[in-house]
């Protein structure tokens, strides 16, 4: 199997994000306002869940996870990050402790943890669950959920799990907020998904709930700065030491969840140019050195001396409009800029320069209707990361026509983070 950069720039026919269901329900402009003004329900049931049980779970996970498990309450969840020996992210996901020796890991990280477990003699068992995950997020989300589940949710702490009953089914409600607003992830057996979904939609009508379609689903990740695998970085699994895992992992993934296909003006010469560390992705606070873990030595140095950090870039609107206007002029046009973002599921990585020097890589380019701005995330050299710094994004293919787009460094997240807002006064 070839892992060259050139091979990953060629997507198979029909390759697209199909994970979020329908492209649009009302329209993407309307839906993109929902998590600021009302609320939405979105379907993340394509994610995978692995249940780990046994007395050695945290010891086993500690070997391959940057997070500290010194304190981990029953009913608590953590953003678990797994790195390779160079400190680059392999996978990440949400780890929830549901019992004394019972944990569920949501996302691709469960595959990596299960693979590592097989090489150890830890007293741990693993099985894959088939759960639904429905996000209900936005300022009115708490009212919708109280209507269907009754009182008690307002006592839920951030990254804590509550148990509620919806449509006669007992399910989990994780307070999270991937849109940067008050929000819950509802989780339970797949057989109950449609009943729960329909009950939420019905209860939410009076509160202006929207179904979140695929065209705008990831705009909240951009505004709230949640870097995403295969969009903002490639998983660090294309190395000789992970060859057996890569083969097992890709064989278990559907077409829409393959590691990535690459586009954009950044012309990486090797796959590792598209890897990122937790520090570069803005997750340095999760890294704790109270235990030995794979990649710990590399990350200890990087966390103390970061070379690149995560920022938002605000793209100049006149330059963006010139890209679109080129479609109406004779001659060669600039590369098409899809709205609100690329729909084909590429890792779209663009060169970012200052004075002609490469200083960063822009990803997750997308249009925010709420802010009326074209934004992107950017891993940028520390010396060029000051808010307000003027940079240039190069839009186009590596060996094709490119448009230099003026951009300004802004905070990440760009949108005010309201995930931890007081539920009692919401």
CATH class of the domain at 5-12 and 226-275 and 307-410 reads Mainly Beta
- Fourth CATH level, the homologous superfamily of the domain at 5-12 and 226-275 and 307-410: Aminomethyltransferase beta-barrel domains
Distance between the termini: 52 Å
The amount of helix comes to 10-25%
Major β-sheet strand ordering: 8-9-10-7-1-11
What does the largest sheet look like?
A: 6 strands, mixed
CATH second-level architecture of the domain at 5-12 and 226-275 and 307-410 = Beta Barrel
Radius of gyration: 21 Å
Assign the structural class, choosing from mainly alpha, mainly beta, alpha/beta, alpha+beta, or little secondary structure: alpha+beta
Number of helices: 10
Report the uncertain regions.
none
**CATH fold group of the domain at 5-12 and 226-275 and 307-410:** Elongation Factor Tu (Ef-tu), domain 3
Shape: globular
Strand content: 25-35%
Number of strands: 19
SSE order, one letter for each helix or strand: HHEEHEEEHEEHEEEHEHHEHEHEEEEEE
Give the overall pLDDT as a whole number.
Answer: 94
Overview of the structural elements:
- With 426 residues, the chain is α+β, with helices and mostly antiparallel strands.
- Among the domains are: 5-12 and 226-275 and 307-410, Aminomethyltransferase beta-barrel domains (Elongation Factor Tu (Ef-tu), domain 3, Beta Barrel); 28-47 and 131-216, Gyrase A, domain 2 (2-Layer Sandwich).
- Helix content is 19%, strand content 29%.
- The protein is built from 10 helices and 19 strands.
- The protein has a 6-stranded mixed β-sheet. The chain has a 6-stranded antiparallel beta barrel with strand order 13-17-16-15-18-19.
- A hairpin with a 5-residue loop joins strand 3 (77-83) and strand 4 (89-99).
- Helix 5 (141-149) packs across helix 6 (193-204).
- The mean pLDDT is 94.
């Amino acid at each position: 199997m070839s892992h060259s950069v050139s091979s990953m720039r060629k997507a198979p026919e029909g390759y697209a994000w199909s994970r979020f269901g329908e492209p649009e329900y009302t329209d993407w402009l309307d839906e993109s306002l929902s998590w600021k003004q009302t609320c939405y329900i979105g379907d993340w049931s394509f994610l995978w869940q692995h249940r780990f049980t046994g007395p050695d779970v945290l010891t086993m996970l500690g070997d391959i996870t940057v997070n500290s498990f010194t304190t981990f309450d029953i009913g608590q969840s953590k953003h678990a990050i797994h790195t390779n020996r160079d400190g680059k992210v392999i996978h990440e996901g949400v780890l929830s402790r549901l019992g004394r020796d019972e944990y569920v890991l949501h996302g691709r990280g469960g595959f990596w943890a299960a693979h590592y477990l097989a090489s150890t003699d830890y007293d741990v068992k693993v099985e894959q669950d088939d759960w639904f995950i429905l996000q209900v997020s936005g300022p009115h989300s708490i009212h919708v959920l109280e209507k269907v589940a009754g009182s008690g949710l307002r006592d839920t702490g951030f990254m804590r799990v509550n148990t509620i009953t919806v449509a006669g089914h007992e399910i989990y409600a994780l307070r999270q907020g991937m849109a940067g607003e008050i929000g819950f992830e509802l989780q339970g057996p797949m057989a109950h998904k449609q009943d729960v979904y329909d009950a939420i939609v019905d209860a939410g009508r009076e509160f202006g709930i929207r179904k979140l379609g695929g065209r705008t689903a990831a705009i909240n990740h951009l505004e709230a700065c949640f870097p995403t695998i295969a969009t903002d970085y490639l998983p660090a699994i294309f190395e000789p030491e992970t060859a057996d895992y890569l083969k097992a992992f890709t064989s278990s993934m559907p077409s829409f969840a393959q590691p990535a296909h690459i586009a954009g003006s950044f012309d990486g010469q090797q796959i590792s140019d598209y890897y990122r560390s937790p520090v570069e992705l803005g997750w340095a606070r999760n890294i704790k050195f109270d235990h030995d873990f794979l990649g710990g030595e590399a990350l200890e140095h990087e966390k103390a001396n970061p070379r690149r950090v995560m920022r938002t870039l605000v793209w100049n609107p006149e330059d963006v409009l010139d890209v679109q206007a080129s479609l109406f002029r004779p001659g060669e046009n600039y590369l098409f800029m899809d709205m609100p973002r690329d729909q084909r599921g590429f890792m779209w990585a663009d060169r970012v320069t200052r004075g002609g020097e490469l200083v960063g890589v822009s990803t997750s380019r997308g249009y925010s209707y709420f802010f009326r701005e074209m934004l992107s995330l950017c891993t940028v050299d520390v010396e060029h990361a000051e808010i307000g710094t003027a940079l240039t994004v190069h839009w186009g293919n590596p060996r094709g026509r490119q448009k230099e787009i003026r951009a300004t460094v802004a905070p990440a997240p760009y949108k005010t983070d309201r995930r931890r807002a007081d539920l009692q006064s919401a």
